[in-house]
Automatic annotation (TrEMBL):
Residues 235-268 are annotated as: Disordered. This is DUF3592 domain-containing protein. Residues 243-257 have a biased composition (Pro residues). It comes from Streptomyces siamensis. It comes from the Bacteria.
């Protein structure tokens, strides 16, 4: 398999990854509105006047006893806890992250679970700390927005770079420019993920995500266009010869100095 075939295979791989990522990004974008509506419904839900018999849109605070808890740090498993009602009936809950509550849970601890639509959506410990479970609606709009920005920005630039690379595989400068576009797309996606982490860690408002990510992405777009144009023009070409060329003739020797004395006479 030649170098051209390898280049085509890489571009096809980038193309497939770009299409799949775009599909995920579109799904995340379409889910933002629903996540916002669900979080808004949760925040405005009234307290239940009595223990709900069926799944209800009101909020009920239920006391639980911790039977076991595992943060699963360093594992690709969601943190989880086994809770028990006063009747002894078990209730299994999972969390999106380990802190601040589930990581401190110990057997026989008393906690309060907030039940909404038949699910424990939040757990509060004796110190007043609270944490959303995997069923909790708070934070999902930000996750959907961050995922949409990451996937769409990477997917679009990777798609452009992959298609460009497929049509320009025999042109070294064009192929370099396409590669620059693709890798800048990776930077845009990573910037969205890092922005989402920063927003969640600092409890910033949702609008901080597009504001910060947009600033970083603007700089990446400027550098991407600059480097791509430079690659097409040949400004990034390595002008150093790969092998030594034919040796140049040696420079002529300097003229000999006169050996005679004043007036051109030879001193003897």
């Amino acid at each position: 398999m030649g170098a051209g075939d390898n280049s085509s295979a890489r571009n096809v791989m980038w193309l497939l990854v770009a299409v799949a990522t775009l599909a995920v990004g579109v799904g995340s974008a379409l889910g933002i509105r629903g996540a916002l509506e669900r979080e808004r419904e949760f925040r405005t839900a009234p307290a239940c006047t009595s223990v709900p018999v069926h799944a209800s849109g009101c909020l009920w605070k239920q006391k639980f006893t911790v039977r076991s808890a595992d943060a699963h740090r360093g594992k690709r498993v969601s943190p989880e806890a086994q809770l028990a009602l006063p009747s002894g009936k078990p209730w299994h809950v999972t969390f999106r992250k380990a802190d601040p509550v589930v990581s401190e849970m110990k057997p026989d601890d008393k906690v309060v679970g907030l039940i909404w639509h038949g699910q424990v959506v939040e757990v509060r410990d004796a110190d007043g700390r609270r944490q959303q479970t995997s069923e909790g609606p708070v934070g999902w709009p930000e996750d959907r927005l961050g995922g949409a920005l990451a996937c769409l920005s990477f997917g679009l630039t990777a798609l452009v770079g992959a298609v460009w690379g497929l049509f320009a595989r025999d042109n070294r400068r064009q192929a370099t420019a396409a590669r620059i576009v693709r890798w800048h797309g990776v930077g845009m996606g990573v910037a969205a993920i890092l922005t989402l982490w920063a927003q969640a860690a600092n409890d910033w408002p949702m609008w901080a995500i597009p504001a910060i990510w947009g600033s970083v992405t603007g700089l990446l777009l400027v550098t991407m266009v600059g480097f791509a144009v430079g690659a097409v023009r040949g400004d990034l070409d390595d002008e150093t010869p790969s092998s030594p060329g034919p040796s140049s003739p040696p420079p002529p020797p300097p003229p000999a100095l006169p050996t005679g004395g004043p007036g051109g006479r030879t001193t003897g």
